[in-house]
Specification:
Radius of gyration of chain A: 23 Å
Shape of chain A: globular
Number of strands of chain B: 0
Helix content of chain B: over 70%
Radius of gyration of chain B: 27 Å
CATH topology of the largest domain in chain A: D-Maltodextrin-Binding Protein, domain 2
Order of helices and strands of chain A: HEHEHEHEEHHEHEHEEHHEH
CATH architecture of the largest domain in chain B: Orthogonal Bundle
Number of domains of chain B: 2
CATH superfamily of the largest domain in chain A: Periplasmic binding protein-like II
Structural class of chain B: mainly alpha
Distance between the termini of chain B: 40 Å
CATH superfamily of the largest domain in chain B: MetI-like
Shape of chain B: globular
Largest sheet of chain B: none
Helix content of chain A: 40-55%
Number of strands of chain A: 10
CATH class of the largest domain in chain B: Mainly Alpha
Largest sheet of chain A: 10 strands, mixed
Number of helices of chain A: 11
Structural class of chain A: alpha/beta
Oligomer: heterodimer
CATH topology of the largest domain in chain B: MetI-like fold
Number of domains of chain A: 2
Strand content of chain B: under 5%
Amino acid sequence: MKKVLKLFVFMMVAFGLLIAAGCGDNSSADESNPNNNETGNNNSENNDAEVELGGELIVYSSRNENFVEPLLQKFEDETGIEVRALHGADPLQLEEEAGNVQADIFISNDLGALGYLHNQGLVEGSNPEGIESIPAEFRADDNAYFAISARSRGFIYNKDMITEEEMPKSIEDLFDPKWAEVENGYAITRGGNGGMLGNVSALRYEWGDERTAEWVEAIRENAAGIFQGHGDIRRAVGAGEHTFGLVNNYYFHQQLLDEDNNVGFIYLDQEEDQMGVIANAAGVGLVTGAPNEANALAFLEWVLKPENQVVFVGESLELLINSEYGAEYPPEVEPYIVDFHDLKVQDMPIKELGNYFEGTKELIENSGLDLELR
Amino acid sequence: MTNNNIDKNEKNKNKKNAKVGEKFSPTLLHFIRRKWFDIWRGNPPGPVLLLFGLFVALIMSIPIIYVVWRSMFAGVDRWMRLLDERIPQLLWNTFSLTAAVTVCAVIIGVSLAWLVVRTDVPGRKLWQWLLALPLVIPPYVGAVTYIIIFGPSGWARDFWRDTPWLVNVFGDYPINIYTFWGVFFVLTMFTYPYVFLIASASLRKMNRNYEEVARSQGMTTLQVFWKVNLPFLRPAIGAGAILISLYVLSDFGAIAMLRYVTFTAAIYFQRAGFDTASATVLSLVLILLTVVILWIEARTRKKNKYYQTTNTYKKPDILPLGKWKPLILFYVIIVFFLSVVLPILVLVYWSIIGIGMGALDERFFGFAWNSLKVSGFAALLCMILAMPIIYLKSRYPSIISSAIDRLSYAGYALPGVIVALGFVFIFNNHIPMLYNTFYMVALAFVVRFLPQAMQAGEASLSLVSPRIDEAARSLGYPPWKVMIKVIIPSILPGVLAGGALVFVSSIKELPATLMLRPPGFDTLAVRIYFEASEAFYHLAAPPALLIILVSCIPLRYLLKKY
């Protein structure tokens, strides 16, 4: 016992010293920050882009960490700016921190969230080089946020359990309780999920609140699995734990790379008289009052470069809005890629999503789907 | 000596006051002073020590007060909606799980304790500490291993699918771990050691005389167990049951991973969706639940007092199991296998795969360093802050010092999500300097785990005679200096053990870390949670194993404590 204790004392002392050293580092970093900001501001005033950048960049991201991390790593390697990322962040955190701004960049997989932040004045406009490459319908008027990759909602299904003909083809089909009867039922995500929020917003645009609330109630009743995220759903469907699940199309692409890859995908509501597939996009916003604004602006211009737009898509296997930049897909996935422009897409402008964000959250909360897991 | 000095000073002041005739009449001053001395039973501590103690108590209780306060402003609508729709369901979920796990863990813990302490189970000395080992496995890690084995795509499913007769006889794979029973099983398996340890300690102290009397009255072993042993065990069972039910109330990791929703998980998800007002409302209900449990415990403890006479103490005899031996041994082994061997095997298997795939990269060591940094800092702070509180409590007993002591337990009894919620409010709005730094996380750990350091220190301090303090005081040291120069050196081992406990608890902590971690500051626990929820088990297993290894450090102390 004594020996253990002695060892422990030694460790604690060594550790105290390390902490002290660490604290020293931290404070010096904090001190250097304002300087960075100042020089950054000077830079932008002088329009001198070729200045050594340094310091750090705080990124809040609500996108899957595994897609974002390689992008941030590449940025760090190429610019020397240290990126500190908070993954799994919620857009409302920016609202809470409005008086004490922490983040420089917000990366979202739901354009609705960025639109909402824009309405609240929490992301601010800028004019980064290369912004013209993003079509006007995929960016804010003042470029406070812009989208890089697009996705559409649909059903991933297990081909061992159901055929394409038997699958539901419309989002409206989920009103019908008979789909609860398929083998092992179907899966959806928790209502708090960004993709689900966008989905419900689009339905509210199309149907109004009352019918949408009924739809949410129906899926809440009938779904056999309610998961935290879409990754769980694609794996569950691939493994035959559920017959099908409501996901974004790129999760289908990801599942094709998995062991259990006998899956198919239904793009919903593609008939003439139907609403078209519900689309959403992932993008980037510049936080108002960002503490490292110069670095944030550098990041925006960097990510707009064609090669980095491709990296933004990366492992997510989403569709690049600028498909001509040639996002590369693995050979297993390539044949299944459907170009975004070839789909019948719902006529709600994606930018509209932001105006629906708050109401949608409220509707989902009232339904109780935000807390349900099963 | 110092007291005398103070007295003289006071007297001088009084004289002056009387002469000059200031606002405060000497009688009033005298009265206050008398009261003050009464509170402290004639022995008030120095102002430095007292202020420090009050300061610590304030830090410890502010987050909770803040949460309760904020919940009052959630608005009638929100309260009504939550009370109407959400709270009944959550109450049922939480209550049924807590009750089921507590009952089952108590049964397993007490039966195992009785078997290994009082019967001739083979290897009983070894089992006495082997069966406490699940303590080192955080339940969320346990949950991951059980998802790997029994999950819908787990090993058991594969085995079932590839075994024709199973499918033919029983149909498809029947186990669904994402149910009440899955959560129940995992939590029971990883919490029973609390009861086991406390019950074995009481059983070892039990006097044989009572049993002999019972036997002489013709009772069988079973009757003796029910009529003599069990009543004696009641305080131990009560203490263990409280620990377990508080744990179940506060657990987030295992429950969230197994897709069950209790109050704690609901608070986390409300907060993650930034519906902070609703989160505070749910927190208030959970605080009330906790208080009710603590109140029940206090009541039962008062009602049942059992005395063991020490002067005629005889060591309890060991009962032969006879023909039951193989069955009992099987029971002991199966519990050990399910709660220790199986999880560790799974983790080792995936760690080997992970390490083969390069899981121990720079990132991993970065996370380990973060864990070490924040937990070590918390342990250091706890050791420093615990000292004045326990010194006040043991040397200057009074209402004030016991109030300070009680307040220090506030964060310990309550779930980490509530502490974290309070911290977010306070730091974001009032201490922006520290917001989003690792100091905030470390402070949250202090609020959560300070009592562990206090308990360890108290145990050592009770062995140091107050005469020693008095000697030091008589040589002219003020109380705070006595504490630093005389007391601390003599109770250092206990304090360090307390620090080790805090360190381990902090490294395992999940919900507060998740809610408070600054950008780019993931810890091992956070990584386990994220990697496991993405089914990257090869990345989740190595940090989990590391946490388990580190948790073994204070195990010996833990075993000795009970």
